[in-house]
Amino acid sequence: MSRAEGIATDPGTGHAFVIDADNSRIDEFTPWGEFVKAFGWDVAPGAVNEQQEITVVATAGQFRLTFGGSTTGDLERAAPATGAGSIEAALNGLASVNAGGGSLTVAKGASDGSSSRYVVAFSGGPLAGSDVPQLGGKSGTIPLSGTPSAGVLITTRADGTPGGVGLESCTAESGCKAGSKGSSTGQLDVPAGIAVAANGDIYVRENSETDMRIQKYDSAGRFILMVGGEVEKATHVNLCGTVTGEECGTGVPGTGPGQFSQGRGIAVGATGTVYVADADRIQDFEPAGLFDGAIAVAGKVVERLAIDLSSGDLYATFGSEENIRKLSPSGVSLCTVAVPRPTVLATDSAGHLYVVNTVSALPEAHEEVLEFDSDCTKTSEFGFSGAVNLLATAMGTNTAGDLLLARSDGTLNFVQIYGPPPISFEPPPAVAPTIATQFLASADFSRASVKAQINPNFWTDTSYYVEYGAGKCSEGGCTLIQPPTSVELGAGVVRELINTAAIELADLSPRTTYHYRFVAQSGGGGPVRGIGGKVGLDGAEGTFTTTALPEPQDACPANEAFRVGPSAALPDCRAYEMVSPVDKENGDILALGNVSGYENRLNQSSSDGEALTYSSYRDFANPQSAPYTSQYIARRGAGGWTSAGLSAPRSGAGVFNIFGATENEFKAFTPNLCSAWLVNDTPPLLAAGAVERFPNLFRRANCVVSGSYEALTTVRPSGALPSEFPPESGAELQGYAADGSKVVFRAPYKMSTDAKEGVEQAYEANGGEPRLLCILPSEVPYAGNCSAGAAAPLALFHNRGASVSHAVSDDGSHVYWTASNESGGPGKIYLRLDGSETVKVSEAEGAGKTTLKAQFQGASADGTTALFTVSEGAKKDSLYKYSVESGSSFIAGKVLGIAGQSEDLAYVYFVSEEQIGGNGTSGKANLYLDREGTSSFIATLSGPDVNRGGTLFSDIEIAPILHLARATPDGRDLTFVSTNRLTGFDNTDAETGEADSEVFRYDAEGEELDCISCSPVGARPQGRKVQVPAGLVLPSAATLPAGENQLYTPRALSDNGNRLFFTSFVPLVPGDRNGKADVYEWEAPGLNGCKEGAAAFSTQNGGCLYLISSGESPEDSELVDSSPSGRDVFFSTEQSLLAQDPGLIDIYDARDSGGFTPVPTPPRPCEGEACQSPAPPPAFTAPGSGSVGPGNPPIKRQGCARGKHKVSKSGRSRCVPNKKKNSGKKSGKNTHKSGRADK
Known about the structure:
Blueprint: E1 4-9, E2 16-20, E3 25-29, E4 35-41, E5 51-57, E6 62-67, E7 70-71, E8 75-76, H1 87-92, H2 95-98, E9 103-108, E10 115-124, E11 136-139, E12 151-155, E13 167-170, E14 191-196, E15 202-207, E16 212-217, E17 223-228, E18 239-240, E19 266-268, E20 274-285, E21 291-307, E22 314-318, E23 324-327, E24 333-337, E25 342-347, E26 353-359, E27 366-372, E28 378-383, E29 391-397, E30 403-408, E31 413-418, E32 434-443, E33 448-455, E34 463-469, E35 480-488, E36 498-499, E37 503-505, E38 513-522, E39 525-529, E40 542-545, E41 574-578, E42 604-605, E43 611-616, E44 630-637, E45 640-645, H3 658-661, E46 666-669, E47 675-680, E48 696-701, E49 708-711, E50 732-736, E51 743-747, E52 761-764, E53 771-772, E54 785-788, E55 814-820, E56 828-833, E57 837-840, E58 854-859, E59 865-870, E60 879-883, E61 887-892, E62 895-901, E63 907-912, E64 925-931, E65 934-941, E66 966-967, E67 973-978, E68 998-1003, E69 1008-1011, E70 1024-1027, E71 1033-1036, E72 1038-1039, E73 1059-1064, E74 1078-1083, E75 1097-1098, E76 1103-1107, E77 1118-1122, ...
Antiparallel strand pairs: 1-2, 2-3, 3-4, 4-13, 5-10, 5-12, 6-7, 6-8, 6-11, 9-10, 14-15, 15-16, 16-17, 17-18, 19-20, 20-21, 21-22, 22-23, 23-24, 25-26, 26-27, 27-28, 29-30, 30-31, 32-33, 33-36, 33-37, 34-35, 34-38, 38-39, 38-40, 41-79, 42-43, 43-44, 44-45, 46-47, 47-48, 48-49, 50-51, 51-52, ...
């Protein structure tokens, strides 16, 4: 089918007739959507049709048939089509037919009292789909007799026309092809409208500039008559075909009765009256084609028509105008159907009207179907997603209550059927079930679960079971059956893939490969076995291998006493340590999102793993204030972890608006966590010289003199300042030296004498007096927007989306910056050296020299090399490496983005649409490694993997908070995610059928790619929908942490690449039983106890998989961060992993050789309903004012003695002592001006 321009159904049979416009034919389908035939001009393959028609005109006598030199015996003049003594049996007995396996079938055709008609279809062997001889007729022993003259007439087409080119029918058996366009009798030129009468006759409206006519066919596709301007060529009358010998042809456009000039609509009433849309009128005709009158519609072009068969009322659209008018048969306007942009329409047997309306409103243009009752009142609607290029081209209904809708995008063409199953017309087609997929859902050492997708092909009694065994099913090895009695699919009357229930296979042997296949059957046929199986021809079987028996953990003499409870199951002699405190005001360690929905947390491990800074909505640990997000630092001591609040004092109204007030004030920490940078917008001023009523940027000391602050600017910006600041109006931290000695930030205000007013520029903090960074090589201050690295192009990504990777070198001596005409994005790139000299980067000598815009992609840790891509011109999307010593060198063209790089840029992982070195696929997202100028191919990624629109987590997204891939510092290992089957694992989601994203690791030295998060036993994932705020959805089985902000990304890969930590949404080992997200560790072979043959080792993963979280938490666990060596793995969980944990969301460290002396389990003070649940995190509600004011006194908690508060877990609560508060501490909660608390 190609471009369905009209749909009409036979009221009696329910068969649908579709205008197949580009193929110049009419296609017929059963109510179930099965193809019946097509008719048009020369639509059957071959010069001679494989369908021939025998007409025996006689009242008595016998005849014989000939074919290819063979002749049948005597046949009675009214012989049956099939069975004993039949036409079919006689012909199939001829050597000229059955030679080489040929065969034919015979069906009874339309007959009257003086004739018998048979349709012969050559369907088997060499007679199918090819030219065949013509049948012939001879007299029998008793000659045929009767009036008119008796005889045998044989035509080569089932429509009764003679052989050669002409109107004909084709079937799936004969094969079909596109018909030829033209204006001959029965030929279709530009078919535009179709209608079917109650008796099955078909009317087709043609609408070309030179041919305006209506052609009428019977249900078999035989031409009956035509109506149009001068269609009878001898007498030039407007009706042709009713008299033998008439020559019919083109319908001349005109305005007379029976002539047409415009419009495409046609409808047939219950009595057979035919209504035709035209300019200024709707013409009506008798079934015999005679003009019967017209309904005047002055000044309008009637475009489309639909008729209410019960009342005879008409619905009409007019050109491209809005709305639809309902007219009586006499032309009286009854009511108006309000539809802004109507296209196609149809009515049902209840008199309801259905209209497709095109909607151009945001978020995207689409189409919708509107339903109206007979009073023109809308009763329902439903829409289609993303439909501007997939347009509704035709609509129809049938008397069973189905709605048929044709849609096309120019290439894809189909008809969708909505409504009840059409069982009132006929039973479903006799088609056996289809097994489309079968797959492993889970397995361990003794059990497995398998599922399948089965199409019942409309049969409600479809059932299935599983055959399995240790041998091949095809060789009789699947001797076991489960369940013993077939299970009904229970899908109803549908023809679509249905997920089966999980079939459990028990009592399996460890480390054994099993074969299995699903078996399905129904009233439509069967049984069918395996994927793609047919009755009598088995399909594909599946296999799976059970896991090894669990192995006991190796002894851990150094910390065995600490590995109690869930810790005993951890690998590498790890033990759980509770990082967050027990006493946290009965709240979770959880940071709420900002107003836009983006994460607000800043969780970071120190480089030695001995400290962790983390965020929470709850204030505790002797805080000096309670902002929207509170920041803490936890340090490990001899007896455990202790936390301290870092939030700055707040005693008055803030200057941020509501968007700024919901941002985390902390922006970055040095690797050792000894320094932090924060933006503070409330009194008191935290350091001398800070500017009042301004969001000041401060440096906080956390180690030597903990809690001291230094203002990074003591200069009040020039010009008028707003009363409320949006977050992007504050200073944006863009980089710092590793020891914190050098800091670069960006601000939209003039903060130095040589800066420019009214633009956003970058500054170096310089003893409280900012120094403009953006100095051109001529030592002239740049007067436009500028940024360290490259600023985010969207204000929404302020502090989150800038490309600033090593824009400031580790020692602070090299700072890369971009001069841009816009507030963010690409421009000309420069390098500032030691604050005293500027050199060109994108304009430097070398292969990448350009005066056009370029995008900073990152720099080496020492600042001596950098990466950039050209953003426009002939070099657009080319990637270059810049060197201070040698200028720029070319890496690759058509680059989509950077996945990761080593600290020295000796290793650069990039994605390009080029085919490099004969590897990769041209035009696809190919992942390459550039190693000192030589590129090697790794894999081809999917579209979602390389999304760059800021709407999806991806491997190359330039905004750090959406970037997932990362490399080790030496670049020898890369981890990334992909929805493609890069290692052959079937990552099709078991429920949705979409490709789930998995975590991969590439070892550059061994050139090995492994799917780290793929099921070791090969089970299909059942993942999650991971979504960026207001963005797209990424189906994911597992994921890596994206950046917390633009300056820090949690560590997932250890520095040596031998350990990888990730969050999985699906269970990967038998101990993961909670159905929630859990944290896993992958280890390379040879590390600790990981080796081939170990129970945790899997060839699928290229290493060993272990649970880090317990696999039993009632809610999701999540990777927080890890130390560079992988010794410390920080994660959040709601499960109590240690006795002192009351059961809220806490952060733990699964520490190699870690642990502390176990705390005795305290008694529970209450049971059941007497216990209170923990307070849930508050949902943020926009306050009446964007400012934050002085705090209210802490709210007293009920139910515990003074000095204690209640904590709960799983419905049980207990009271624990409060930590002592400093008597001089500021109020624990800040409130807005309205007096309502933030939380």
